[in-house]
């Protein structure tokens, strides 16, 4: 399974948030840093 | 998640958005976010497309996903990558905030 390496471009993606709006990683470029948290589960 | 919630303002101060991606569906996300009053951006990924893209590990013995964190700077570069080896293997907020300070300082230096 691929892993992201340090100091390389983070792979872009688009997903809908839970209210149905599309969010892309690229939306934040030039605007904000992003802390991506890959969750375990909510339980 | 509660740990991140505690220092949410500190992340905001460092112009950092917290984006949570998980395998649950939108309804489960919404219920959890509302119950715990989470101010983060929550992205359900029930097909695990992004989770696979980023190589989140699955513990096949326990059939659970291992936590992972990636800091992406404003240029879209991965500046911190942590793949947890156990359910509790999560970096401290202080470690993440320290790195964000370094990233922010570098931006200021480059602009001068």
Helix share bin of chain A = under 10%
First and last CA, distance of chain B = 36 Å
Query: By helix and strand content of chain B, what is the structural category?
Result: alpha+beta
Please describe the biggest sheet of chain A, giving its number of strands, its sense, and whether it closes into a barrel.
2 strands, antiparallel
Characterize the biggest β-sheet of chain B: 2 strands, parallel
Q: Write the H/E string of chain B, N to C.
A: HHEHEHEEEEH
Shape of chain A: globular
Structure report:
The complex is a heterodimer of chains A (43) and B (112). Chain A is mainly β and 43 residues long. Helices cover 0% and strands 28% of the residues of chain A. Chain A is built from no helices and three strands. Chain A has strands spanning 14-16, 22-24, 33-38. In chain A, strands 1-2 form a two-stranded antiparallel ribbon. In chain A, β1 and β2 (22-24) form a beta hairpin. Chain A is globular and about 30 Å long. In chain A, 30% of the residues are buried. With 112 residues, chain B is α+β, with helices and mostly antiparallel strands. Helices cover 40% and strands 23% of the residues of chain B. Chain B is built from five helices and six strands; from the N terminus they run ααβαβαββββα. Chain B has helices spanning 2-6, 8-13, 26-35, 49-53, 93-111, and strands at 16-22, 41-44, 58-59, 64-65, 68-72, 78-83. The longest helix of chain B is centred in the C-terminal third of the chain and has 19 residues, at 93-111. Chain B is globular, with a radius of gyration of 15 Å. The termini of chain B are far apart. The mean pLDDT of chain B is 89. At the A-B interface, β3 of A face β1, α3, β2, α4 and β4 of B.
């Amino acid at each position: 399974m691929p892993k992201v390496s340090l100091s390389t471009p983070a792979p872009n993606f688009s997903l809908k948030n839970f209210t149905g709006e599309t969010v892309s990683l690229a939306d934040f470029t030039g605007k904000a840093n992003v802390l991506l948290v890959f969750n375990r589960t909510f339980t | 998640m509660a740990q991140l919630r505690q220092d949410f303002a500190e992340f905001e101060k460092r112009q950092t958005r917290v984006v949570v991606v998980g395998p649950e569906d939108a309804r489960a996300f919404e219920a959890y976010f509302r119950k715990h009053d989470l101010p983060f951006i929550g992205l359900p990924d029930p097909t695990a497309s992004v989770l696979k893209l980023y190589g989140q590990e699955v513990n096949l013995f326990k059939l659970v996903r291992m936590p992972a964190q990636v800091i992406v700077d404003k240029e879209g570069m991965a500046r911190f990558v942590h793949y947890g080896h156990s359910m509790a293997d999560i970096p401290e907020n202080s470690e993440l905030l320290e790195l964000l300070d370094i990233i922010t300082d570098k931006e200021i230096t480059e602009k001068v």
